Amino acid sequence: MSANGKTRLRLDYNAPAVLTFVLLCAAVQLVSLITGGESNRAVFSIHGGSFPLVLVRLFTHVLGHADWTHLLNNMMFILILGPMIEEKYGTSNTVFVILATALATGLAHLIFNPGTSLLGASGVVFAFILLASITGAQEHTIPLTFILVALLWIGEQAYQAFAVQNNVSELTHIIGGAVGAGLGFVMKRDRMGRYGT
Questions:
Q1: Which of 150, 161, 162, 175 is the most exposed place for a label (fewest CB within 10 A)?
Q2: For the domain bounded by 16-188, which CATH number is listed?
Q3: Each residue of 99-118: pLDDT tens digit?
Q4: 27 forms bridges with which residues in the sheet?
Q5: In which band, very low, low, confident or very high, does the pLDDT at 191 lie, cut at 50, 70 and 90?
Q6: How many Cα atoms are found within 13 Å in the side-chain-facing hemisphere of 160?
Q7: For residue 136, which of 150, 122, 146, 125 has the smallest C-alpha distance?
Q8: How far is residue 122's CA from residue 157's CA, in Å, rounded to a whole number?
Q9: pTM score
């Protein structure tokens, strides 16, 4: 409260992991714009290359995006789902979900599509979607909503992979969703603990 008794509004950095991730993605996109995409090719996309740098790219490829539309679409979902996930599971666990998803999708891409580049946070988006669908579940239950989301989503991704020619990595989406679902069930049983806000 202020001296005159009125309550002051203040900004609340309410989801540190999610907000920091979004700000990093925006900064990386700005740097990509300034460098004509060279920064994305060098650091913020996963593809073959020298051994030390490929280890960095395993985690940094989720920060790079092809363009502003790609970035905004992913960030919208992350900003909708992320704060709920971070409030439920804590900041450290949310960071762990992002890092685990980056690692899993990066490795899968190197194994199955080594001749192409991958960038973007869509794997994290799908991890958050599947994780969010089980967040309110009671102990020792599998929510019907989770099963429906998983079936609809896997079916749609399988269709996209085989029937539609595009530049989207459906494998990344499927692996991201699997990471989110798996970690969700682990965190529901509190096996990872809850750290942070």
A1: 162
A2: 1.20.1540.10
A3: 999 999 999 999 988 888 99
A4: none
A5: low
A6: 15
A7: 146
A8: 12
A9: 0.85
